Amino acid sequence: MAEIFEKPPETGGRYEPLGTAELLDHDKRSLRLKAGSAAVEVTALAPDLFRVGMFPEGRTPRYDSEAIAKEDWESVEVFMEQSGDEVTLSTTAAIARVFLNPLRVRFTDASGRGFAADDEELGMGTVVTPDADVFSEPLGSPVRLYKWREIGERYFGCGERTSGLEKTGTYQVFWNVDPPLGHTASYNNLYTSIPFTLSMTNGKAYGLLFDNTHRVEFDLASENPERAYYGAEGGDLVYYVFCGPTPRDVVDRYTELTGRIPMPPLWSLGNQQCRYSYMDEGEVREVARGFREHYIPCDVIYLDIHYMDGYRVFTWNEERFPEPEKLISELREQGFRVVTIVDPGVKVDENYPVYTEGRRRNLFCKTSEGEEYHNVVWPGMCAFPDFTNPETREWWGENHRTLLDKGVAGIWCDMNEPSLFVPRQSTMPGDVVHPGGQSGEAKLHAQIHNTYGSLEACAVREGLLKLRPDERPFVITRAGYAGLQRHALQWTGDNSSWWEHLWMSMPQLQNLGLSGVAWAGVDVGGFWGDANGELLARFTEFGIFQPFCRNHTALGTRRQEPWAFGEPYESVCREMIKLRQRLLPYLYALFEECHRTGAPILRPLLFEHPEDETTYAMDDEFLLGTALLVAPITRPGIEHRHVYLPEGTWFHFWTGERFEGPAHILAYAPLGEPAIYIKANTTLPLWPEMNHVGERPADPLTLRFHPAEGSGEATLYEDAGDGFGYERGEYAKRRVVCEVLGGSISVRLEEREGSFAPERESVYLELRGVNTRPETVSVNGEAADWGYEEEDGKITVRLTDHVGETNVEVRIQSTGPDLPPA
Ligand code: MIG
User: Fold this and answer.
1) According to the model, what pLDDT value does residue 29 have?
2) How far apart are CA 184 and CA 273, in angstroms?
3) Residue 814's pLDDT band (boundaries 50, 70, 90)?
4) What pairs with residue 125 in β-bridges?
5) 358: which of 214, 524, 662, 710 is 20 to 30 A away, CA to CA?
6) Is 259 helix (H, G, I), strand (E, B) or coil?
7) Which residue's CA is the closest to the ligand 1 atom numbered 1?
């Protein structure tokens, strides 16, 4: 087990930096150099994006990788210059400076800021072992890249990790595992590997993607506080530098390179319920009934491994689930979708067509002797699809037809590190062969291990798209590599019903968000072990703000449905889950923004406030978009906690109390009233309560504001909630601007972009914290339909007659004192 996590044993290898280089040639965007027996290429892909590659001399550079979604970059204006030992590659935004003796690369931007500078002596190179040739194929020698740590530089990102948000001073392993010891702070790698860091220095960001699918390690100023290194056990040294200067710029470019999340089906933003396992159709029906009887919203119920016949993928257990089609359509009528688990292991069984066809068509992984590679998983002895082979991916995708035809709405890919039972929770030996198919090339498992899960998720997404071309695929994955966000959402696997893991969910999701994987969630309530009422309630207070909100627990644990622990916990869960359901229009607009720009949905404070270094340490609170700040309670018996409010005016969600950031405050957050703050003047769009998406039209839409002197804006986004009409302009996007000046408040709903017309008669504006009754309220110059509730300081303006108008402007005037308290 140790070798999965720990630093590899000393091999007697010696690190050899490249040394002196000479410039060979260049084209419009690249420099090519030679250093010893290596070729090095430095390329400007975009004004703020550079790529560096080191290859064995004589081999054509290759940058195709599972991480990369975009290979054809528009032409970019590059200016090259050589003076003495230094060659520079300048764009309008940044400069790559290449020093030839010894070879080292560093970057500066237009403001003169330097970043990602190679260590003067160590730079990039290989680890040479006495008995191995440098660059011996296919594994090659270990490669390394040493970078200076700028003074004050702090590291974040690294994808799915245990422990806190900041990774400065740590050693990080990138090797997908089903962690035998669970999620513990001492072993930081889990099921996915995203070898990407976002660094912050003096409020400015840059990013570095070390694109290598072998076992990768990062030393982020752990061994030596003055430098970091990025290394891999083999393969080519390829890395990308994202110049920033804001975290938003870095993540935007990073997700342009590696891909962005697809638009989700709207129903998948709803609350979801799982258990390992709901054992038969009776139990599933009972759980569904439970949600409706307890008036707790729920959109999705899961079938874990027991729905299958002897755990054979793409089959049904006829005793437990004799009529899956009927069950699923009944549930559908009650507003539930059904998602099923699919594991990659295919049972070795002569009478099982999935196996015999895979074998006949040569679609499985092989041993080094050319036999089918077998290991034990749930079904017993299994063969494993070679997902590097495009033919395998197509076949795997097509196999999902049997599930979709029964009405299954989405697929949950588990165990795809892959996780194997012999030895327990291990993975494939490095010498297992992925033959790659007729058009591909054979690769060893050690070369592609970290991509196995992504390749499976890709197969499933593509398969679902083929089978249901008019529906947005809903695919969940546990394992994956950089770029996995293109194929699937990620859930973070087997956490425990511990307070510690409730806390850890926040840094975990924030770092995933900074690493492109914004559509993510942890098991609400915790997977291993028994939850209790207070833990589940507090977990739900946090969980409803996750992009993916699913309660899940393990075999043999206590029931964990939202009503499982009775009162007061059941009511807390109900109110929280209702709040999530009401928040769906807000969340959906954040998904659209993320789909377009990569901006995380659940984001660290530093994403919005990079200049404020206090935010860097705030890993137990987060922003959901820009309008909401959430600071969950993560300890039992506690009703107060410290909250840091960054710059801006904030209003407490429950009491409306006003705060001016930056400020450290003590929040009172009894059970059922988690510490949530709304930003002034940005709208929080809310649906009416409903049990599931589509139960009734989202009418009226309420736009809630807390006005304060100044201005703010937000963007509403709606579309059909499924399908691809939005790609042809069938969406409705509307900017909402709120301006407050002395005794007047103006709210403008600007012209709608796109051709989608939401099915709705009314929009209500709800302004909170207004302490005097306004004199006049007008909509587009006419008297408005409005009301004022003095005790709450709440103005409601009903826009029923105006929803269809191109521009809607609401003006609220007072002649007396300022409307919102100054
Ligand atoms: O060895 O399918 O992370 O969510 O319930 C356990 C059974 C296999 C691991 C997943 C978990 C799932 C469970 N699976």
Assistant:
1) 96
2) 25
3) confident
4) 17, 144
5) 214
6) coil
7) 415
pLDDT 10s digits, 580-606 = 999 999 999 999 999 999 999 999 999
Q: Which residues pair with 126 in a beta bridge?
A: 16, 143
Chain CA centroid to CA 301, Å = 22
- Residues contacting residue 161 through CB under 8 Å, at least 6 positions apart: 167, 172, 188, 189, 190, 507, 508, 511
Question: pLDDT confidence of 818, banded at 50, 70, 90?
Answer: low
Contacts of 458 (CB under 8 A, 6+ apart): 387, 393, 486, 487
Tens of pLDDT, residue by residue over 469-506, are: 999 999 999 999 999 999 999 999 999 999 999 999 99
Residue 524 CA to ligand 1 centre (angstroms): 14
Tell me: the pLDDT tens digits for 326-339?
Answer: 999 999 999 999 99
Are the C-beta atoms of residues 560 and 290 closer than 8 Å to each other?
no
Residues forming the active site: 414, 417, 494
What is the DSSP code (8-state) at residue 417?
Answer: T
pTM given for the model: 0.97
Q: How far apart, in whole angstroms, are the C-alpha atoms of residue 100 and residue 87?
A: 8
| pLDDT level of residue 804 (50, 70, 90 thresholds) | confident
Amino acid, single-letter form, for residue 432: V
Find tokens 């090095």 and name the residue.
40
Cα–Cα distance for residue pair 120/109, rounded to 1 Å: 20
Which atom in ligand 1 lies closest to the alpha carbon of residue 414?
Answer: 10
What is the number of the ligand 1 atom nearest to the C-alpha of 555?
A: 5
Testing ligand 1's pocket by substitution, the residue of 160, 273, 276 carrying the most ligand atoms inside 8 A of its CB is: 276
